[in-house]
């Protein structure tokens, strides 16, 4: 069994609430009392100082210290010493490029998959936890060396998943159509569409949908299926999908 522990959140702010407000109880039960300090990765936003301040304020209010990796002179060493990692949202391409530029892909993989330290992602931070960022909603504003991501789980996620609006006059592709186009390519993994307010908790070989909204699961060549909070998604963690 894998020692991995992941909390993959669709979004960091839910309408009507503050930063990470909708999932703060999940964060506390996920990190528990053993973790004292969290290593924050603010690479998805341009203003890393401001982003780190926002995250630090939130985590300190929950009883955790927070160190931002961009303040470290040796990011690799910061990952090696970390007790827990939180990668925040923003632009997924910018985030992934910075992870490659700082030689952090293998380091984070090792800490999470071998050493078992908790990994939390929101939005772009959830995207990079998966096989690839092919199913992100973001614009490719920079060019990472690869779309392959951390691969902490063997499938992809589409955060901020949006259902088609029946009243809309917008004629562009729906999110569902875009994911279907992805699955028209050969050997593409499952895609879990996480609506805002949803999150996936992964503990070893068990994955459970949490939060207040459901998720939509897309498997290549099959009709998408609808799932409520509490759904056991452990079958997605086996590579044979």
Automatic annotation (TrEMBL):
GO terms for biological process: proteolysis. One of its GO terms (molecular function) is dipeptidase activity. InterPro entries: Class_I_gatase-like (IPR029062), Peptidase_S51 (IPR005320). It comes from the Eukaryota. The keyword tRNA processing does not apply. It catalyses: Dipeptidase E catalyzes the hydrolysis of dipeptides Asp-|-Xaa. It does not act on peptides with N-terminal Glu, Asn or Gln, nor does it cleave isoaspartyl peptides. GO terms for cellular component: cytoplasm. Its EC number is 3.4.13.21. It is an enzyme of class 3 (hydrolase). PANTHER family: ALPHA-ASPARTYL DIPEPTIDASE (PTHR20842:SF0), PROTEASE S51 ALPHA-ASPARTYL DIPEPTIDASE (PTHR20842). This is dipeptidase E. It comes from Zapornia atra.
């Amino acid at each position: 069994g894998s020692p991995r522990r992941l909390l993959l959140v669709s979004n960091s702010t839910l309408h009507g609430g503050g930063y990470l407000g909708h999932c703060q109880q999940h964060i506390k039960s996920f990190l528990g009392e053993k973790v004292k300090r969290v290593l924050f990765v603010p690479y998805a936003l341009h203003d890393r100082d401001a982003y780190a301040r926002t995250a630090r304020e939130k985590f300190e209010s929950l009883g955790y210290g927070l160190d931002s990796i961009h303040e470290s002179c040796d990011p690799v060493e910061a990952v090696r010493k970390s007790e827990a990692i939180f990668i925040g949202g923003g632009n997924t391409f910018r985030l992934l490029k910075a992870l490659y530029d700082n030689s952090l892909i293998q380091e984070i993989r090792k800490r999470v998959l071998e050493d078992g330290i908790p990994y939390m992602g929101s939005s772009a931070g959830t995207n990079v936890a998966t096989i690839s960022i092919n199913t992100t909603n973001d614009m490719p504003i920079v060019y990472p060396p690869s779309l392959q991501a951390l691969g902490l789980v063997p499938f992809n996620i589409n955060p901020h998943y949006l259902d088609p609006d029946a009243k809309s006059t917008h004629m562009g592709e729906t999110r569902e159509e875009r994911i279907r186009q992805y699955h028209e390519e050969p050997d593409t993994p499952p895609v879990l569409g996480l609506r805002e307010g949803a999150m996936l908790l992964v503990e070893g070989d068990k994955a459970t949908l949490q939060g207040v909204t459901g998720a939509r699961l897309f498997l290549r060549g099959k009709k998408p299926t609808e799932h409520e909070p509490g759904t056991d998604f452990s079958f997605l963690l086996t590579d044979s999908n």
